[in-house]
Amino acid sequence: MLVDSHCHLNYKGLAERQGEVLARARAAGVRGFLNISTRHSEWQDVVATAEREADVWATVGIHPHEADKHADLGRDVLRTATEHPRVIGIGESGLDFYYDKSDRDVQRDLFRMHIGVSRETGLPLIIHTRDADDDTAAILEDETGKGAFPALIHCFTASPAFGRRVLDLGLTISLSGIVTFKNAAELQEFAKEIPGDRILVETDSPFLAPVPHRGKPCEPAFVRDTAQFVADLRGVSLDQLAATTSDNFFRLFGKAEAA
User: Fold this and answer.
1) 221-253, pLDDT tens digit by residue?
2) Please, are residues 121 and 82 in contact by the beta-carbon 8 Å criterion?
3) Which residue, 226, 7, 243, 43, is CA-closest to 126?
4) Which residues does the annotation say bind a divalent metal cation 2 (predicted)?
5) How confident is the model at residue 257 (pLDDT cuts 50, 70, 90)?
6) CATH number of the domain where residue 82 is located
7) Binding site as annotated, residues for a divalent metal cation
8) Which domain holds residue 251?
9) Annotated binding site
10) Left, alpha or beta for 122 (phi > 0: left; psi -120 to 50: alpha)?
11) CA pair distance 153, 164, nearest whole angstrom
């Protein structure tokens, strides 16, 4: 059983053919999908998909690109949205200093707000970080000192040093199709050392199609290709990697089993 731990089923490119996309993924052995929010205006549609599809779950949160537009989003608004039975996670949230589409201080403040709600609710936080390793790690270390919260780094592309730093904090790491790219040698080496109980796989579809689907819109079905690549890196079978990552998913996102 495979789980796509991060996809955007309501994004253009997938939303128009959502039924066939899900059918194709299920035929490829994908039995669970975490549909991710990036802005407040998406929450209703993302949750509606999870209400309609028994094997799809939802998150609520604000992507760092959208931080400026949501600087005044109240903690209570996010907290209330997490109460929906199909919402099993918070995010994606975090820091993106590569594109800098939002003020960095606003990003930091919103990130900390998401962490606080994760701590209050016990729902895992899905973290986006790009070109912000030091700031992300510093915030995570500071906030962990205030009290534990479950979290994962999605679409991991950071340095091994950052990876080890967040693993030391107890976070989970999710690998996307980027790990299959020819120029991802450092990431491939790090993928071998992620503890077995702390690894997930994802597509981030409709983005980042793995080899051999480069150049195509990414679909949740392609998580199988990423999982096979990671299994080969780690010297295990696809079935073993699928069992490990799905077990990790349901352990981290415990609300999924009741949703």
Assistant:
1) 999 999 999 999 999 999 999 999 999 999 999
2) yes
3) 7
4) 128, 154
5) confident
6) 3.20.20.140
7) 6, 8, 92, 128, 154, 204
8) 2-257
9) 6, 8, 92, 128, 154, 204
10) left
11) 12
